[in-house]
């Protein structure tokens, strides 16, 4: 009975339990990415928004809304290519039934291109960045937050590179 | 291994009790952020700049019923409330209502002013500070409004978007107070808008 009571207490709907509590996005861990030198490699970053919340898309419909934006700080000689944001979902909410907002909810993916230059020493590199977002639920909005983003890239030589320099070891060790 | 079912039940109950106590402790600690501001608490005084550059204190509105609204330009629900506040200010201003907006925004003063102008705001907008938000419990979600009686005591708090009627009821409750008296104790004669520090 007690356990039943406890489970009921813990099962309070998010909207009632967390009003006033800012939601936290999470990033699905990224498996080690292998990127060839002098070539662009696309990396998918998957994010999860807790149920009952939404965040603005990268292209919100009002100048005052804070867009979701990824900012990466990559190691020297690894160039950040295009960041591809998913299109926002046009949605209206009880607080603004006549207005469509461009939002993300649930799971969404941002794809980024990493381009290790020819000068990069093969090996593993840590990519770091932040995802800035601002969340709301059906009745309230929460201050903007930054979610740390990081993943590892294993840079390998371009094919044929070892043939150009036969003296160099053909094996790459991270 | 021979396990005593009763012992397993006891262990399960102890674990469940631990979770239950922890859960409630966590809830209480979250609530404690605002527990110093309860109904009839003196509203913390502050000093903030208005959009016009005028230094404004909450105590400047002594004797009036104040609806202190924390908002931001990026907050959709806040935008819905603003026309209601404009109407309420028009309707109840003569009776002593003063709506005061506090923009908890990273946007520039110019952007906030443009937003307020576009919304036709007819009440003062102040540029918020984190320290003032902290005094009011951290203001973790917007909009958040405090209804402050004429004697400077908090009579209600509204978090998130509610209906206009609910806000109006709270306004009436704040208006239906007397300046300089304590709602909860007729004997008390504490100064209004006592600074908290």
Radius of gyration of chain B equals: 21 Å
Distance from first to last alpha carbon of chain A:
55 Å
Give the assembly state of these chains.
heterodimer
Question: Can you say what the CATH homologous superfamily of the largest domain in chain B is?
Answer: Glutaredoxin
Q: How far is the N terminus from the C terminus of chain B? A: 62 Å
* Chain pair sharing the greatest interface: A-B, 27 and 31 residues
Q: How many domains make up the 3D coordinates of chain A?
A: 1
Number of strands of chain A: 12
Layout of strands and helices, then pairs:
The complex is a heterodimer of chains A (174) and B (197).
Chain A: H1 2-10, H2 14-17, E1 26-27, E2 33-36, E3 41-48, E4 54-56, E5 69-73, E6 78-84, E7 89-93, E8 96-104, E9 107-116, E10 123-133, E11 135-136, E12 145-156, H3 161-164
Parallel strand pairs in A: 2-12
Antiparallel strand pairs in A: 1-3, 3-9, 4-8, 4-11, 5-10, 6-9, 7-8, 10-12
Chain B: H1 5-35, E1 47-49, E2 55-57, E3 65-71, H2 76-92, E4 97-103, H3 109-118, E5 125-127, H4 130-135, E6 144-148, E7 154-159, H5 164-175
What is the gist of this entry?
Chain A is mainly beta and 174 residues long. Chain A has 3 helices and 12 strands.
Describe the structure.
The complex is a heterodimer of chains A (174) and B (197). By secondary structure, chain A is mainly beta. Chain A has a single domain (35-159), classed as Thiol:disulfide interchange protein DsbD, N-terminal domain (Immunoglobulin-like), CATH 2.60.40. Helices cover 10% and strands 45% of the residues of chain A. Chain A contains 3 helices and 12 strands, in the order ααββββββββββββα. Chain A has helices at residues 2-10, 14-17, 161-164; strands at residues 26-27, 33-36, 41-48, 54-56, 69-73, 78-84, 89-93, 96-104, 107-116, 123-133, 135-136, 145-156. In chain A, strands 1-3-9-6 form a 4-stranded antiparallel sheet, with no helix packed on it. The model of chain A is unreliable at 1-18 and 163-174 (pLDDT under 50). With 197 residues, chain B is α/β, with parallel strands linked by helices. Chain B has 2 domains: 1-35; 47-175, 3-Layer(aba) Sandwich (Glutaredoxin). In chain B, 39% of the residues lie in helices and 17% in strands. Chain B is built from 5 helices and 7 strands, in the order αβββαβαβαββα. In chain B, strand 1 (47-49) and strand 2 form a beta hairpin. Chain B is elongated. Chain A binds chain B through residues 2-3, 6, 9-10, 19-22, 64-66, 93-96, 99, 101, 134, 136-137, 139-144, and chain B through 12-13, 16-17, 19-20, 23, 30, 72-80, 104, 106-107, 111, 115, 140-144, 159-162.
């Amino acid at each position: 009975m007690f356990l039943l009571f406890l489970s009921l207490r813990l099962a309070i709907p998010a909207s009632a339990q967390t009003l006033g509590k800012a939601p936290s996005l999470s990033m699905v861990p990224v498996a080690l990415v292998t990127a060839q030198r002098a070539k662009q490699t696309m990396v998918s970053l998957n994010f999860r928004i807790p149920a009952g919340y939404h965040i603005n898309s990268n292209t919100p419909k009002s100048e005052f809304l804070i867009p979701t934006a990824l900012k990466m700080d990559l190691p020297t000689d690894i160039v950040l290519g295009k960041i591809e944001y998913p299109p926002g979902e046009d949605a209206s909410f009880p607080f603004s039934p006549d207005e469509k907002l461009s939002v993300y909810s649930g799971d969404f993916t941002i794809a980024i291109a990493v381009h290790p230059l020819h000068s990069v020493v093969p090996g593993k590199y840590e990519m770091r960045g932040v995802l800035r977002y601002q969340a709301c639920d059906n009745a309230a909005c929460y201050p903007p937050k930054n979610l740390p983003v990081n993943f590892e890239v294993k840079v390998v030589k371009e094919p044929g590179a070892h043939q150009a320099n036969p003296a160099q070891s053909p094996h790459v060790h991270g | 291994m021979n396990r005593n079912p009763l012992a397993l039940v006891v262990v399960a109950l102890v674990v469940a009790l631990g979770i239950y106590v922890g859960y409630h402790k966590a809830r209480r600690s979250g609530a404690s952020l605002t527990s110093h501001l309860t109904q009839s608490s003196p509203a913390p005084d502050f000093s903030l700049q208005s959009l016009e550059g005028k230094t404004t204190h909450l105590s400047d509105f002594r004797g009036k019923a104040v609806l202190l609204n924390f908002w931001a330009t990026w907050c959709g629900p806040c935008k819905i409330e603003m026309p209601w506040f404009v109407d309420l200010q028009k309707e109840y201003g003569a009776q002593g209502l003063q709506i005061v907006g506090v923009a908890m925004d990273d946007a520039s003063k110019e952007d906030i002013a443009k937003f307020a102008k576009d919304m036709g705001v007819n009440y003062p907008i102040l540029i918020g500070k984190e320290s003032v938000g902290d005094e009011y419990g951290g203001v973790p979600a917007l909009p958040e409004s405090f209804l402050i009686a004429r004697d400077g005591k908090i009579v209600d708090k509204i978090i998130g978007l509610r209906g206009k009627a609910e806000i109006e009821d709270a306004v009436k409750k704040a208006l239906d107070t007397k300046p300089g008296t304590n709602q909860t104790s007729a004997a008390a004669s504490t100064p209004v808008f006592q600074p908290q520090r």
